[in-house]
Amino acid sequence: MGRHSFLEGLATFTVAAVTAAGICYLFKDEIKGTKTYQDLNDKYDVDSKINLAADKAKNAASKAKDTAFELKDKAFVVKDDLMGKYNQMKGSEENLFDDDEIILDESDVEERDYVRVDNEDDDSDPIPSTDEKSDVDNIVLD
Question: H or E element: which one contains 108?
Fold first, then answer.
């Protein structure tokens, strides 16, 4: 008993199961004609359930295939639209970045309507006095 390994037993069982399945497949027509099979088929309606499952699988596969083709067609339409827009923008003489503000020269800064953040000419004290602090506190607390 101890001389046989687990894998040898598993292989023997697998060969026996495959042999039994092969014999059942060869004689499936004769098996379907037996009274026992007919009684079980009438009771559980096995054949119609198998056919129904196969039909559902075929319908689901065809629906998935149709959906995939529709998505592929939509992707081509979107790609064509985007390529058309790209070619239209590429061919136009209009600069897409005209509205962007790029400062290349510091002399242009003086003509603008805004104030520089790092204003060194301002002599005012950046720290408020105690009176100003109390005014701010009163406003915030109210």
Answer: none
CB within 8 Å of 57: residues ≥ 6 apart = none
Q: What does pTM read for this prediction?
A: 0.36
CA atoms of 18 and 16, how far apart (whole Å): 6
38-49 pLDDT, tens per residue? 888 888 888 888
Cβ-contact 89, 96 below 8 angstroms: yes
**CA distances for 68 relative to 63, 64, 108, angstroms:** 9, 6, 57
- Long-range contacts for 56-59 (Cβ within 8 Å, ≥24 apart)? none
* Beta-carbon contacts of residue 96 (< 8 Å; ≥ 6 apart): 89
